[in-house]
Amino acid sequence: MKSVVTVETRSVSAQRGKVHVARRHRKRGEDLLVFMHGFGCAKESFDGAFTAGALAEYSLLTFDFPEHGESGSLPERADIEGAAEVVTSLLSEFDRRHLYLVCHSMGGAIGVVAARKLPDLAGFISVEGNLVADDCGLVSRGVAQQSANDFKERGFSEFVQWLERSPERSHREWVKWYRRCDPRGLHGLAKSLVDWCDHRDLAGILGTLGPSAYVHGSHSDVAHLKEILGDSMYQVDGAGHFPMIDEPDAFYRLIGERLDSFATNGWMANA
């Protein structure tokens, strides 16, 4: 199937201003599949989507959130609401028949907030996305508990060093993306993310979005979500918090299966 892949940086609206957003887009099918990365990561988290056979019929979009990768900073302050506004502004530029979101970690929270303003959303997949307070234990709560200055001066570099020493392959990828982030922006996003997970009902909002699924690695402790999410949870064997890095073939195959299920049981059932 013929397709065109473009990599570019465009200015989009956010917080009564503009922010430059780096993105990679493949124009192919009529349905648009959007991947959103996690805290301290980058659009390259999902490079494997562009060669995955299970996703061959979809148009694809990946991008760097503000404060990450090659994107700029939010005009006023770095928070989940501002990042979600970037998502809706960015997606307004793309024609599609149906829209699907696949959102990892912090991107899961941003995706849930943004999805409330995406009426054509046909399916949502959270990949270990932040939903409740217990989901902030890996990194974000530790960042949020530091002052902005302490994190910029010490905390940011200390976590880079920790990632560099880690034996995990996903952490070796993560550190390459993390180094490119803006420390003050990361700190603002971490504080906002913890606030949303501690005090807002992200899981309840997710339940109102229509067809959805929660994907996790078999090595991750997600027992606290089973009562909330029930049968909508799907496991990638042999993977941790980054299933798209640890087990990419199985991960993208599972994503394709869930998308097929959405099409069969979601919008097609209501057509």
UniProtKB/TrEMBL annotation:
Keywords in alphabetical order: Hydrolase
Top-level taxon: Bacteria
A GO MF term: hydrolase activity
Ranges for domain AB hydrolase-1: 33-253
Entry annotated with the keyword Nucleotide-binding: no
Coiled-coil regions, chain positions: none
rRNA-binding recorded as keyword: no
Stored Pfam families: Abhydrolase_6
Name under which the protein is recorded: Alpha/beta hydrolase
